[in-house]
């Protein structure tokens, strides 16, 4: 049975408070963050889910460019080779060049070549830009339930930080963790696409955001994310990761399949770091993982990872991305 959820709002005039739990995961909160000791899982209306599946089936599929880019990355293609794949799309190429030449990246000379821009940004950031370009077709940027630029920024942050965290979790595949981080909250985008079934609901601090989503939509962003990911033909491991990405909040580590457990934890911890660093996805709540996950982070702590210069650098870069 899940533990009772308790919320503590941090006083905005006070110094950052400590989110307490197992010593491996204790971390200072940013001002105005919300800390929960537990998140309550929510059931799903099968009837409503069937309606959503039918509606989403009519959405356009991502461009073939995404698959080509992913295949090239798996084949360890060079930045120039990746550039050759992407430069045929003028809009995407412009986005990559703009990101590479942003004022947030301190370089002496501007970059005018897509391959060099990819080398400057790194594959994680470029994957995020390509995904946003490929999967945003049919999506409205008008704020409905969630703000899409904010969601993409959160996904980008979790993706980049998951690769940093993955280095500290034995057996964790950094690339898979990064891809899962990019798509873990994609179900929230789905709530913007299908609005005719929304019901009035109030966020209850004693229940958490999954219960709110269920009352408002008849399902949570977890189920909606699985539907979208299946429609977009994402890899099965990513779909499985979406299904389990909130489990660390309310389940023992053994309840997550071993094949995806390390990547799920990397994404979960990266999510905490992203929210703490100002790249939240619309829900500022922070819930520490169950103590059963502590042995998966054997040689460091979340607080130490938060001090890693790569964390600050990735967050700074992502904050400069224009939408």
Indicate the CATH class of the largest domain. Mainly Alpha
Gyration radius, in Å: 19 Å
What portion of the residues fall into strands of 2 or more residues?
Answer: under 5%
Tally of contiguous helical segments: 16
Per CATH, what is the topology of the largest domain? Answer: Hypothetical protein af1432
Distance between the termini: 42 Å
Q: Main sheet, how many strands, which sense, barrel?
A: 3 strands, mixed
Ranges where pLDDT stays below 50 over 5 or more residues in a row are: 1-15
**Overall 3D shape:** globular
In the sheet with the most strands, the strands line up as: 1-4-5
Q: Give the name of the CATH architecture of the largest domain.
A: Orthogonal Bundle
Structural class: mainly alpha
Whole-number tally of structural domains: 2
Order of helices and strands: EEEEHHHHHHHHHHHHHHEHH
**Level of helix content?**
40-55%
The chain-level mean pLDDT equals 83
Total E-strand runs: 5
Please give a structural write-up.
This protein is mainly α. The protein folds into two domains: 7-59 and 140-319, Hypothetical protein af1432 (Orthogonal Bundle), CATH 1.10.3210; 60-137, no CATH class. Helices cover 52% and strands 4% of the residues. The protein contains 16 helices and five strands. It has helices at 46-56, 64-74, 79-86, 90-100, 114-121, 123-135, 148-166, 174-183, 186-193, 209-217, 221-231, 236-244, 247-250, 258-276, 302-306, 309-319; strands at residues 7-9, 18-19, 27-28, 34-36, 285-287. The protein has a three-stranded mixed beta sheet, with helices on one face. It has a two-stranded antiparallel ribbon with strand order 2-3. Residues 1-15 have low confidence and may be disordered.
